[in-house]
Amino acid sequence: MDSGKTIVTSRNIYLNIVDNVDLFNCLFGRHMFYVMAMSTIQCLAIWLLSLNIKNNEFSNTIYTYYSNIIFNLEAIFFPYVMTLCCDLTQGAGQRLLVTCYSIQNAFKITSEEHKELELFANRIINRKIVFRAANFFDLDRRTMLAIFFNVTTYFIALTQVESIKQMGKL
After folding, report:
1. What sections of the protein cross the membrane (predicted)?
2. 3 state SS of 109
3. Residue among 45, 53, 52, 37 nearest 72 (CA)
């Protein structure tokens, strides 16, 4: 098989992958949004429970503390792994674009391979691999960090409200 046909085959495989990612987003995008939302709510609920247990002298045991940490890690683990896998796949698509441009320099500008690689690079630019959660947000590391920082901010706000309640009881 000559290199021009190999490039065309690679481009077609890439387009099939993008189509499959689009189908995945249609089928599971809403579910991924629910998973992210539920894990965020679960983390906040566990942290609030931990805060209430800390303020209650009778339930303040080391077992309760470690069980809350384990529940929190369980709530965070699946969305983190899911987002990391989506981000790695998106990164592989972007590295493919860099590879196209670097291989393109090995061929003459007028060659068939150069033209096919240019067409392939344009397809990659126009049809990126992007995993979305119900078209609300992209699943990538930036989103995961944003969710983490938002949950932390909400936890700080809940902690302040809880401490104000405790001060009112004193």
Report:
1. 32-51, 63-82
2. coil
3. 45
Q: How many domains does the chain have?
A: 1
Q: Which two tokens stand for residue 8?
A: 């065309």
Cα torsion angle, 8, 130, 73, 34, sign: negative
Maximum Cα–Cα distance across the chain? 82
Answer for the pair 141, 87: CB distance below 8 angstroms, yes or no.
yes
Residue 82 in contact with residue 140, Cβ under 8 Å? no
Mean residue pLDDT of the chain comes to 85
Which residue reads 């993008």 in tokens? 18
Per-residue pLDDT of 114-135, as tens digits, reads 999 999 999 999 999 999 998 8
- Global model pTM greater than 0.90: no
Q: Which range marks the domain in which residue 155 is found? A: 3-169
